Amino acid sequence: MNAHLFVLPADQGQGLQSRLQQMLVGLIFNGHLLPGAELPGARAMAKQLTISRNTVVLVYERLQDEGLLIAKPRRGYFVNPALEQTPVATGLSHAPRVDDPSGGIDWRRRLRLFPSEQHNRNKPRAWRDCRYRFIYGQLSCDLFPAEQWRSCMRAASSGPMSREWFADLVDEDDPMLLAQLRQQLLPKRGIRCGDAEILMTLGTQHSLYLLSQLLAGPGVRVGMECPGYRDAVNQFALTGAEIVPVPVDGDGVQLGQDSASCDLLYVTPSHQSPTTAILSQARRQRLLSGPAGPLIIEDDYEADMGGQALPIPALKSADPDGRVIYIGSFSKTLSSGLRLGFMVARPELIREARALRRLMLRHPPANNQRALALFLAQGYHDSFVTRLARIYAERRELLLNAIARHLPDCDAVSSMGATAIWLKCPAGLQAEGLQGIALEHGVFIETGAPSFFVDPDEEAERYLRLGFGDIEAAQIEAGIELLAMLIRQQLRWASEWPY
Domains of the chain by range and CATH? Predict the structure, then answer.
């Protein structure tokens, strides 16, 4: 047997037993260890992987209990021959030939949609390896309240409580979580509602998808902030709706003839994405005046980052006609990987969104809903957000000061409570080219174009977004100093070779 097959996966916080089990299961399911194949003895495996023999024995026994291995007295462990009759062994034999990866199907003709061809935010995986990660929407792992979250997960998994979520909820949501949202979270944004007006989702993306399917389509005009949230643009564009770019300034989205003629208007009033501008009170009043205007989708994605309260409540709180559809998530506080969000709207819309969600996935994982409910009920969320807001305020101030020192020719904008800075660089900057060069030097930045502009022009190429959720305060100064050097270098090249 090839010894090179036995390599432990990278350590991602797992124990040795988990990593060894992952390696062996992967080899079996990938066809490298065929049914009936003999595994190395526990002593030989332990020596090759530099781990203890007991670790190997425990994993072998566990896989035997799970039916993947069998033990033969005085001979050792073997891959269970019974697997030969399962897809584990036979699946690979039916795979398409390497020289015909399409399997002979003209997928271009069969597919009705091509979402992979849309412009999306450029977030190469290499950002994880950068020393200076000015990435937006990512929380430093060391900030996550792991102990409190584990406590809530354990409580949710206890005997009496686990019975409440273990059964299929079909299209319902956890009643404890709905109660916590109604009684604790939403009132801070000035929103009062009943259970029939709330739907749990798998984050903001899921909410937007449901709304795009229910409300948009050919002939529907959808107003989108420009610059704005590209994923929202893409969601509604897939339906065939007409996307209407609505300009943004320092007071948020500009209301005019374009926005008034829309059927739907997507806005981020608390912190405009990506400029962080807060929608002015005058524009809020104008947006909500009268029932004849467009339906408004309010994405309150950074509502908690202002500390105890934001100076201006949510649009939904002053919505007398039910035109505002409020969506939020826990991605910016707890974790973008948690994938739990919510939608608040009139019961008529929530009823249809719930029915559509059932066709997609029935409901978000009920165990995570209950753990989150406990996290809110125990006060962990409030205390964590307060601490996080304080940390982000410090990082924001350090970042603005560093930009003022090292990039004096750039205009930096960041409202209080925002978790990123919108940076306008001197004319001649080519942001996408800069991003690639910066990655090579261990600096990650997000580009303004094409990430946030519907129809990017030369002016859009000058913008960058610098997040500070996943960079330590001590690294900010050095990261901006290095970025400033790379920007000056690119601008010098542009002046020397203008064509």
Answer: 3-93 (1.10.10.10), 125-143+383-496 (3.90.1150.10), 157-378 (3.40.640.10)
